[in-house]
Amino acid sequence: MKWFMGQYTHNLDQKNRLAIPAKIRVDLGECFILTVSPNSDPCLLAYTFEGWERVMASINNQPPSRELTYTQRFIYMNADKIELDNAGRMTIPAQFMEKVGFTKEVCILGAGERVEFWDSAKYAEMERGVTEFMQNKQTYFSI
Which CATH number does 7-136 carry? Predict the structure, then answer.
């Protein structure tokens, strides 16, 4: 299993291409799955094919329900196979750009089994919220 860590900031070019940092690219690969976050966070998520299969297996193995059907529809209609170009850039589909509100600067965040892509202003809001949560939390995980 691949584990992604760290944070990076890169700019989108006029064709919605984003350079993927070499440290991320090595483990993510030249081809991966990109999807809109299903939990309403305004970000995109990238998974290796192996990671995507694990996530989808955990979802698809749930008992049949209306909620499962809606979840599957949302995930599959908001996912795409992405291939990097020779310069290590991905082109972000226009519908994904609209859904997450990317402008120019994108923060790339290693988040364990996935990589997250945030518009820099929205990333700053998220980071403040996470920091506040961790500072106010009564119980901490020890590492």
Answer: 3.40.1550.20
